[in-house]
Design brief:
- By secondary structure, the protein is mainly beta.
- It has a single domain (about 45-60, about 130-535), classed as Pectate Lyase C-like (3 Solenoid), CATH 2.160.20.
- A hairpin with a 2-residue loop joins β8 (about 140-145) and β9.
- The chain is built from five helices and 33 strands.
- The protein has helices spanning about 10-20, 20-30, 40-55, 80-95, 210-220, and strands spanning about 65, 75-80, 100, 105-110, 110-115, 120, 125-130, 140-145, 150-155, 155-160, 165-170, 170-175, 250, 255-260, 260-265, 275-280, 285-290, 300-305, 310-315, 320, 350-355, 360, 365-370, 375-385, 395-400, 405-415, 425-430, 450-465, 470-475, 495-505, 515-520, 520-530, 530-535.
- The strands form four sheets. The chain has a 22-stranded mixed sheet that branches.
- Helix content is about 10%, strand content about 35%.
Length: about 525
C-alpha cells in the first residue's frame, strides 16, 4: 500500500502474515497476473490517499490524571457513578485537559459527556464501564437517528462540538443491551425496541416502528419539520419513545480518538461519529451482535481513519453514511441552533475515509456505503481487509434508493480477502439503487432523489471459495425496465451506475450461472469467476 512506510504491506506479505497458511497457499497457486491500473486509480492510491492519511492526526492529551474514584466512583457494578465520572471530566477540562482514568472495577453509569481535551482512559483489561439500561439515564441531546436530525436519548458516551477528545485503553464499554434479564432486573434492554417481526417472531409493543416511521416522514417532506419539533427520547411531559442510542456518538467534534477499547452489547450502532473532522479509530474491538449493531458508522464526517480494528457485529461492520432524505441536503434548523461546525455544509457529504488492516469476524456487510446517503460519499479508500464471517451478506456494498438519493464517487478498494464468500442470496460486490422499502420508501424507485454512482475501483479482491449467489449484483436504473413516478421526471442515461472497474480479482464459489449487471458501466480486467477468466471489458 502507499499510505506511508508505517502502514506498508505488499499484497503477498499481507496475505501470508495476516491471513494464515490457507490464504498464502491460495495466493501461491493463483494464476492471477496483474492488470495495469488506470491512471486515475494509480493517482488516487499514490497521491490522494497519502494526503488524506497525513492530515488525520490523533490528538495528544496533557499528562494529568483524574481518577474517577477520587470523585466518588465505586467499582462494584451497582453504585451509580454517573455524577462522579462526569465530575472528573469537568475537572479535567477545567484544568486544561488530561486523562480521566477508569481503574480496575465495574463502574455502573448513565450517560457520559466528554469535554474538550479529555481522554476517557480505561487502562486495564478489567476496567469496565457498565452502562445502565434505564432510558431515563440518557437525557435528550441533539443527534441523528438513521440519518434524520432529532432530539433523542444521549449516546452512552457523547460529546457536542468539542475538540481533542478520546476514549482509549484496554478496558470495556458494556452497554448491557440484550433480550434477557440483566443485573438490574430489567427483563429486556434496548434490543427488543426494534420489534421482532422482521426476525420471525411477534412484535413486542411498544417498539420503534411508529417512532421510526414518523421521524422518516418528518425528514422526507419538502421544507422539513424543523428539528426543534422532533423531540423523541423522553419528552418533558414524560412520553417515552423507542429509538435506541448508539454507544459512542461524538457530534460536531474535531480531533477524535477511539483506541484500544472493547465495545459490547451496544443498544444500537457501536460507534457513530457525526459531523466530525479528523477522527482516528484504531485497534478497537467492536463486538456486539444485537440488531442494528453496526461496528463503525461515520456520518457526514471529513478525514476519518479506521485501522487495525476487529469487528464482530450484528449488522454492517463499517457503514459510511451521509444523512437521509432532505436532512442530508438542506438545513433542518441545525444552523439556527449553532449545532454545525464550520467544516459542515449542505449537502452533508461524508468524505476522505481510510479503512485499513481490519478484520471482519461477523457482519452483514464488510464495508458499506449507505443506506443513509442523501448528502453523498466521496473519497473512500479501503485496503488490506479480512472478511472472515460465515454469515457475511455482502463484502462491498453500496445501497440507496430514490428516497435516500445521494452520490457515491471515488471509491477505491484493494487487497480484500473473503475466504467464505457471502450469503447464498447476495453478491460479493453489490450496488443497489432499489434498497429496502419501508413506510416512507415505497416504492424505492418513485422518490425525488436520484442516486449517482461513479468511479468505483476494486482490485485484488480474493474469494477463494464459500458459496455466493453472485460475483456482481449491480442494479442501476434502466429507462427500459424501471417505472418512475412522472412527478419526478423520466429516467435518462444519467440514472445508470457510472464507472465500476474490477481488476486482478478471483471470485469462486458463485452459484448463479449469470450475474446481475443492469444499467452499469462495468469494466473488468484480469478477473476470474469460478476459475474462468472473464473477458476484459
Amino acid at each position: 500500500m502507499n499510505l506511508g512506510s508505517k502502514f506498508t504491506l505488499s499484497r503477498r506479505a499481507f496475505l501470508q502474515t495476516s491471513l494464515g497458511a490457507g490464504a498464502a497457499a491460495f495466493l501461491a497457486r493463483s494464476p492471477l497476473g496483474h492488470a495495469a491500473p488506470s491512471s486515475e486509480e494509480t493517482f488516487a492510491w499514490q497521491v490522494t490517499a497519502p494526503l488524506i492519511r497525513s492530515r488525520i492526526q490523533a490528538p495528544v492529551f496533557p499528562q494529568r490524571d483524574f481518577d474517577i474514584t477520587s470523585f466518588g466512583a465505586i467499582g462494584d457494578g451497582v453504585t451509580d457513578c454517573t455524577a462522579a465520572i462526569n465530575g472528573a471530566i469537568r475537572a479535567c477540562n477545567a484544568a486544561g485537559g488530561g486523562r480521566v482514568v477508569v481503574p480496575s472495577g465495574s463502574f455502573f453509569t448513565g450517560a457520559i459527556t466528554l469535554l474538550s481535551n479529555v481522554n476517557l482512559y480505561l487502562p486495564n483489561l478489567d476496567s469496565i464501564l457498565l452502562f445502565s439500561t434505564d432510558p431515563r439515564k440518557y437525557p435528550n441531546v441533539l443527534t441523528r437517528w438513521e440519518g434524520n436530525d432529532l432530539f433523542n436519548y444521549s449516546p452512552l458516551v457523547y460529546a457536542f462540538r468539542q475538540t481533542n477528545i478520546g476514549v482509549t485503553g484496554r478496558g470495556t464499554l458494556d452497554g448491557q443491551a440484550g433480550t434477557f434479564p440483566n443485573a438490574q432486573g430489567n427483563p429486556s434492554a434496548w434490543w427488543w425496541w426494534k420489534g421482532s417481526a422482521p426476525f420471525g417472531g411477534p412484535n413486542i409493543f411498544p417498539n420503534q416502528i411508529a417512532d421510526s416511521t414518523q421521524l422518516k416522514r418528518q425528514g422526507a417532506v419538502p421544507g422539513h419539520v424543523p428539528v426543534s419539533q422532533r423531540v423523541y427520547g423522553i419528552e418533558p411531559n414524560g412520553t417515552q419513545h423507542y429509538l435506541r442510542p448508539p454507544l459512542i456518538g461524538p457530534y460536531g467534534c474535531e480531533n477524535v480518538l477511539i483506541e484500544g477499547v472493547t465495545i459490547t452489547r451496544s443498544p444500537f450502532w457501536q460507534m457513530h461519529p457525526l459531523f466530525c473532522r479528523n477522527v482516528t479509530i484504531r485497534n478497537v474491538t467492536a463486538s456486539s451482535l444485537g440488531t442494528n449493531n453496526d461496528g463503525c458508522d461515520p456520518e457526514s464526517c471529513t478525514d476519518v481513519a479506521i485501522e487495525f480494528c476487529n469487528f464482530n457485529t450484528g449488522d454492517d461492520c463499517i457503514a459510511i453514511k451521509a444523512g437521509r432524505g432532505y436532512d442530508g441536503m438542506v438545513d433542518s434548523g441545525l444552523q439556527a441552533l449553532g449545532a454545525l461546525p464550520p467544516w459542515v455544509s449542505y449537502p452533508t457529504t461524508c468524505q476522505n475515509i481510510i479503512v485499513a488492516q481490519c478484520i471482519m469476524q461477523s457482519g452483514h456487510g464488510g464495508v458499506t456505503l449507505g443506506s443513509e446517503m442523501s448528502g453523498g460519499v466521496n473519497n473512500v479508500f479501503a485496503e488490506n481487509l479480512k472478511m472472515l464471517s460465515n454469515t457475511l451478506d455482502i463484502a462491498l456494498r453500496f445501497k440507496t434508493n430514490t428516497w435516500r438519493g445521494g452520490f457515491m464517487t471515488n471509491y477505491f478498494a484493494r487487497n480484500i480477502y473473503v475466504p467464505n464468500g457471502v450469503s447464498a442470496s447476495n453478491g460479493v460486490i453489490t450496488i443497489d439503487y432499489f434498497y429496502s422499502a419501508d413506510a416512507t420508501d415505497r416504492p424505492q424507485d418513485a422518490g425525488p432523489f436520484r442516486p449517482f454512482t461513479d468511479k468505483i475501483y476494486i482490485s485484488n479482491l480474493i474469494v477463494p471459495g464459500g458459496s455466493s449467489r453472485y460475483a456482481f449484483n449491480l442494479r442501476g436504473f434502466s429507462p427500459a425496465n424501471t417505472p418512475i413516478d412522472p412527478a419526478h421526471g423520466s429516467l435518462t442515461i444519467d440514472d445508470a451506475i457510472g464507472l465500476v472497474r474490477v481488476s486482478d480479482s478471483t471470485i469462486n464459489g458463485v452459484t448463479s450461472p449469470v450475474d446481475v449487471v443492469q444499467a452499469v458501466d462495468l469494466h473488468l480486467s484480469n478477473v476470474t469467476r469460478n476459475g474462468v477468466l472473464l473477458p476484459d471489458q
